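Please decode residue identities from the backbone states below.
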């Protein structure tokens, strides 16, 4: 892996054991055997670029959106990467981190998009501590940088499930996944690619839920 990273860095050594190809842009040096000052940490915002339109019809019900669950490294803030040379090995950058846990950031973005789309009369988060007619749960299963792909890219996958609170019946379930190329070999370009990709997938999810409005409205009316 180190040889592959050094090729992308034009022969430079990566700044840390987990630094991806060309991400440092020559700004950092590898600290040998733990000597030298600690590496600076860089924090990036996961802000999905979502584009949705208001629904023609709104469901007279309350929706609770829970934070996306995640396992392993995805439950932390270190940005995850995977190389083409070692596709079975999931690794984390030492110096590049998300400012918030990704599952929480994605859920907050989804809540904002659902409110804009006006699919439900009320869309709530866990912090609202209110009862809801429907719950939208999900799991983040992949969120990783692929620095040695051709071209370099980011990858994301998540599951969403809409459940009726009164009987726990599943009303909607779907998996969303995709990749997005980075436009440059910099941490900023990587973060922007994550934001484009997550925005595209969450926009697709909101539009899918909009198509469910007539059926969900009948379900809500039937409980009145």
């Amino acid at each position: 892996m180190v040889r592959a990273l050094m090729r992308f860095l034009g022969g430079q050594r990566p700044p840390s054991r987990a630094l991806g190809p060309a991400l440092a842009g020559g700004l950092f040096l590898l600290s040998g055997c733990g000597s030298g000052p600690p590496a600076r940490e860089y924090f990036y915002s996961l802000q999905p670029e979502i584009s949705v339109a208001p629904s023609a019809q709104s469901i007279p019900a309350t929706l609770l959106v829970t934070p996306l669950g995640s396992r392993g490294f995805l439950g932390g803030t270190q940005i995850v990467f995977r190389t083409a040379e070692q596709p079975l090995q999931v690794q984390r950058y030492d110096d590049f981190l998300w400012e918030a846990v990704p599952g929480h950031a994605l859920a907050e973005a989804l809540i904002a998009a659902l409110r804009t789309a006006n699919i439900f009369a009320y869309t709530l988060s866990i912090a609202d501590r209110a009862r809801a007619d429907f719950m939208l749960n999900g799991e983040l299963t992949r969120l990783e940088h692929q620095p040695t792909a051709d071209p370099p890219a980011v990858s994301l996958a998540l599951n969403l499930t809409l459940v009726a609170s009164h009987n726990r019946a599943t009303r909607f379930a779907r998996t969303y996944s995709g990749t997005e190329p980075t436009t440059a070999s910099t941490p900023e370009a990587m973060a922007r690619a994550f934001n484009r990709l997550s925005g595209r997938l969450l926009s697709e999810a909101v539009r899918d839920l909009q198509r469910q409005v007539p059926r969900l409205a009948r379900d809500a009316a039937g409980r009145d």
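Observation: Residues 18 and 40 are 14 Å apart (CA to CA).
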